[in-house]
Protein 1
Amino acid sequence: MRLSYDQLDIIKEKMGVDKLWSFSKISTYDQCSWLYKLKYIDKIKSRGDNCYTYFGSLAHELIQDFYEDKIKYEEMISKFEDKVLEWQMLDDPKLKFSTDQERDRYIENLRHYFKNVQTVPHKITNEQAVLAVFEGMEKYVFQGYLDSEYLDDQGNLVILDYKTSTKSGFSGKQLFKKARQLIIYAIGISQHGRMINGEMRQFPLDKIRIRYDMLKYCNVSFMQKNGKIKTTKAERRQWVAHLVNQLRKDFEGVSKDIEKLEKEIAKLQRKMMMKKTTPEEAEGYSVGIGEIEEQIKSLKDDLYDPVQVSEMIEKATLENSLSALPKFIQNKYTVENCYIDVELTDEIVEEAKEEIISLLDDITVKSKEDDKDQAFNRSRIENSESFYCANTCDMKDHCTFYKEYKEHNTMFMVKSDQPSDDELLAMLGLG
């Protein structure tokens, strides 16, 4: 539920502030101070969606519509396909991926998600407003919306955020930087409580959970030889290919298990032949041998020659499904949504608070400077930043730094195409 301008004005008056902050503002500043100036100081109108925001918004809309009973489960994939076709028909240069390969990977991952997503078995609420207050140089009031939220079986309030981005930035220290937005919302909920089924309830931070649903990935779990469950993350479009080596081990494991059981039989047979073995003991060994032979007989049903194994694995990889493999392989694996959870320890929350307040204070100081160009100035764009600038930034057409970066690269490319001094003399017959 998005708030109206009048409602936002009521919140500002109630909180005693003249403006409300959004996470996009501080994340924009943290990404690029010049970008912040262009968007929020100069108030230049953005160039609209790019391919990632287009499909990210679409993915949010589909999964939230399902949870709100606006569409059925099987309609998610059909509506997704309709939107992909609509996107293709638009043929908008601003909505194109950097390469065809990137486009195909991205769309195929989301296609697999909407065909196979495991839905949350709890009542979900979407797009509910949240407020959070921070005290720095000024009183800062954040206002935002949660993708989804629900109560789990332990009475925790789970904040669920959907991500269509890569998982590379969602680990280690980068995870906590990515999680700032949800940490802000968790702090806000702990400050003001949450309306649950018409009742205002309080949730301390230790009863709030932060979780990301990484739509392009899935978690694949399987039992190891040591009896422990191993879970690995894989791109949805090629999760079977991700497991090829493990699948081969599964097939090879059958013959190894048979060999191990045959050794057990040989051991029992030797015991039967020992002079000190009593008839009763021999009978017990014989029964044991019979049971093991039955196990071997059952295992032999799952024996395949190397050519068969290669063919089956190749088919499974191409289809991205285990349906072509024997049941003993299929039953070993579980494929689930790829969730990444963020632990809300006191240390993590306090560190996030300090970073957020520092960013807000920095923006506040610079916004009061007379020379905004100097205040929000930045260093030149490095190659490591170029992907964001070229593919994600909605202000690149207005950015002098990006213009300089492109000109520099063009000069470099032109220069690299020039013949060497020796080549030039040779070309002119002066060598």
Note: The longest strand covers residues 208-223.
Protein 2
Amino acid sequence: MAIDDKTRTELEAAVFRRLVEHLRGRTDVQNIELMNLAGFCRNCLSNWMKDAADAKGVGLSKDESREAVYGMPYEEWKAKYQGAATPEQLEAMKKVHPHSH
């Protein structure tokens, strides 16, 4: 499929927005579960957004990038939805993604 760069960027942006909306709706899925299964989580997405903003010289704080992904301030999301990680989950994360969170 040959598409121009503008269309490709628009499609990629639409996919990102859909992924973020999906994750916002799945508050039952904990970040540590995402990390252990897929090697990334909501925080990773927000960090990647911050990295992209920094590379473009766009002023975006870590808190702003997290709110863009979570749909609310990160501390609010944690208070509402984040459960305590089990020792097994923490151990699995060390094996799967040793240099993360």
Note: Residues 34 and 49 are 18 Å apart (CA to CA).
